Amino acid sequence: MLRAHQQRAFDHLIVVVPGELWPAIDVSLHADLRACVTGHLVLDLERASPEEITRVVAPVIEHAEHARERRLLRKLRDALGSGVLAIAGVDAVLNSLEQRRVGTLLVADGAQLAAGRCPRCGRVSGSREHHCSLDRSMLAPVDAVQYAIERAHRQRADVVVVSHESAELRQRGSIAALLRRRESSDHPIAQPIPSDGEQPDRRGAAIPVLRHPVTTR
Ligand SMILES: [Zn+2]
Questions:
Q1: What is the pTM of this model?
Q2: 134 alpha carbon to ligand 1 midpoint, in Å?
Q3: Which among 89, 87, 90 has a CA at the least distance from the CA of 144?
């Protein structure tokens, strides 16, 4: 199970155990797996069908996702209130992605937001700008949500599509981000920054795996 988690990280791990086996399983779990345990259920599902298992597990996941969204939105509200480490709205999010400062990207489920991509330098700006601020080229329309999600993934940011508690996020422009501290030393990309492939001026420094040492010419 650990190998599967390392290949593709689990969002949730729910342990279903018959009887009172949970404490024994809990202590034997690898720390990485324990960190993603969403809950455990005392049930005997050894002979259950996949449909029965899904029916039992789905409410646990839904409850956890509600709680996670509430926790993130509270964090966003507090950070926006104090004016640091969070931004909201498509223009601010695009700017923060360009500066590689997004730690967690929050997008309201189903949000449709427009932006414009410069055909010359590749810069993506908010839809209200019609020309690139760097070279005055005419911007071509792009799907801002898809672009922001892809770019956040490439920067190893968390991406959360808020589907249960989205009303507040919609009021803030349907997209927002919790930011990384600039001076953070615990984040591998806070120091010399490898390109995420979108910045022509940094292509010489492209390193696909962020944890590796960065080499530049
Ligand atoms: Zn441009």
A1: 0.72
A2: 5
A3: 90
